[in-house]
Design goal:
Length: about 120
């Protein structure tokens, strides 16, 4: 995935993010490694196998948390959980086990605050 071309405004890129799922899809979904991109517009995540992409516009993000588990799954260390409003207008959440989760949490919270003041 050529992030330089596709995301010229990328703030952070993590190529070894471990996907824990999307809340609305329920407990029985595949985890998997992929590339996490935080840009000024969105969070983009592309799971490698099976290949699937997720787009979360910054405008739709309600909050960011660091719980120890998500959908009954854990690795016994904090995860990055993003709570957002999905395309159907319903509250939803997505989570990853990801390096630099605290830094990413701060960066996402900063983007949310910027969008509120614009």
């Amino acid at each position: 995935m050529p992030t330089d071309e596709r995301f010229p405004d990328a703030i952070a890129v993590e190529r070894m993010a471990s996907f824990f799922g999307v809340q609305s899809a329920g407990k029985f979904q595949l985890r998997g490694l992929g590339t996490f991109v935080l840009s000024s517009r969105e969070i983009y995540f592309e799971r490698l196998l099976p290949r699937k992409a997720f787009h979360i516009p910054i405008d739709s993000i309600i909050g960011v948390e660091t719980p120890l588990s998500f959908l009954g799954k854990t690795r016994f260390n904090p995860l990055l959980k993003v709570v957002f409003t999905n395309a159907q207008g319903q509250p939803d959440a997505i989570a990853w086990d990801i390096p630099n989760r605290e830094g990413l949490k701060s960066q996402i919270e900063s983007l949310i605050e910027k969008k509120k003041t614009v």
